Amino acid sequence: MQEERSGEHERTNDSETVSDAVFRRLRHDIIMGILLPGSKIKLEKARERYSISISSLREILSRLSAENLVLAEGQRGFEVSPVSRQELTELADLRTVLECHAIGLSFAAGDLEWEGSIVAAHHRLAAVERRLLAGDVARTIDWVRCDWEFHRAIVAASNSATLLQSLSSVFDRFLRYHMLAGSFRGKAVVDDHKLLFERALARDADGAKEIITSHVQKGIDHIMKDPKFLSGR
């Protein structure tokens, strides 16, 4: 075995260690479908790909296991967590509960700065969505980022770090299903975001919760209809 790499807890910038950066990269690769559900994660190959030691890689995979993105198989190693209709439904329900609760808190506490962040986030999201509707599929990655930034801005004033962290994790796991099935579902999702934006500025929490509930359910329907996804699962 090659000598373990040193310096993996050194900072790559003011706030992130090398291990943190690899964790983020590996997590991104799972969520974006680059590492497919059920695929084995071979430690030596992953060590070379992510330029990190085996021991640190094991720690990272254990962290991902805690988010149910990776399965630890004892002596058999690790694999990317499989997908299922049941998990998709459970994630959708959990996302709806968390996001609707966060909306109630955020709409009650939000100030002018909060409103401004929503306006800016929606402006960026709408710009990317226009490009996607025009056929520029290369902007899908930008859309994924802007979509979360918009939803996060909506609930940012909830003042609950634990709630937002939980929502972020569930949001990403739900997103993985979208990426496997084909992430962007066209004008319908654009219309949902516009309505949610309007409800947020109007401080209409009940209306926003209705939109989120419908928005998530339509996401499930979109995934379930995709012929190349979840077939036979």
UniProtKB/TrEMBL annotation:
Domain HTH gntR-type: start-end pairs: 16-83
Molecular-function annotations in GO: DNA binding; DNA-binding transcription factor activity
Keywords: DNA-binding, Plasmid, Transcription, Transcription regulation
Pfam family, any one: GntR
Statement: the UniProt record of this protein carries the keyword Cell cycle: no
Protein name, UniProt field: GntR family transcriptional regulator
